[in-house]
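Incident log, support desk, overnight shift.

02:14 A customer reports that sequence design results differ from what the structure should imply. Their input is reproduced verbatim below. On-call engineer (initials T.W.) acknowledged and began investigating.
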């Protein structure tokens, strides 16, 4: 099994910046580019609720805005604010769709972490079956 210790640790450190006055649930994500760089993100909530951005999209949008469009995998951790990560935190449907925009669903891995030593690996294909992408508009 590949070692995702560093990536999960980056997601745990990103979660420290989560801005969660409404849900009290903090999420951290760390996306690894094919060029070997790690971009971190946290969830950022808003009083108007719908502008809230998930940790995964924060990480992806930071990377894309810096010119990165090729990704290897992402680590995600979540749990109640002020408490350590507890169970696995699967990405929401909107974040899965953002991954679908930039990643090959048969190759992109989603690592759900509990600690730097404990994680589970999923393929985007399995978390977003029959996902819609720009290829579907070209056929
Ligand atoms: N959240 C994420 O950051 N990522 C997910 O994939 C699931 C949900 C955030 C959004 C909101 O700030 C809080 O978790 C509770 O839904």
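02:41 Re-run completed on a clean worker. Output:
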């Amino acid at each position: 099994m590949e070692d995702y210790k560093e990536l999960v640790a980056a997601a745990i450190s990103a979660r420290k910046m989560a801005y969660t006055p409404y849900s009290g649930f903090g999420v951290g994500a760390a996306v690894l580019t094919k060029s070997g760089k790690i971009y971190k993100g946290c969830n950022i909530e808003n009083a108007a609720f719908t502008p809230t951005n998930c940790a995964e999209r924060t990480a992806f949008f930071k990377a894309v805005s810096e010119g990165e469009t090729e990704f290897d995998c992402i680590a995600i951790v979540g749990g109640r604010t002020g408490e350590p990560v507890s169970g696995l935190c699967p990405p929401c449907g909107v974040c899965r769709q953002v991954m679908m925009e930039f990643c090959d669903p048969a190759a992109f891995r989603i690592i759900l972490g509990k600690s730097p030593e404990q994680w589970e690996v999923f393929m985007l294909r399995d978390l977003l079956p029959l996902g819609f992408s720009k290829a579907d508009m070209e056929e």
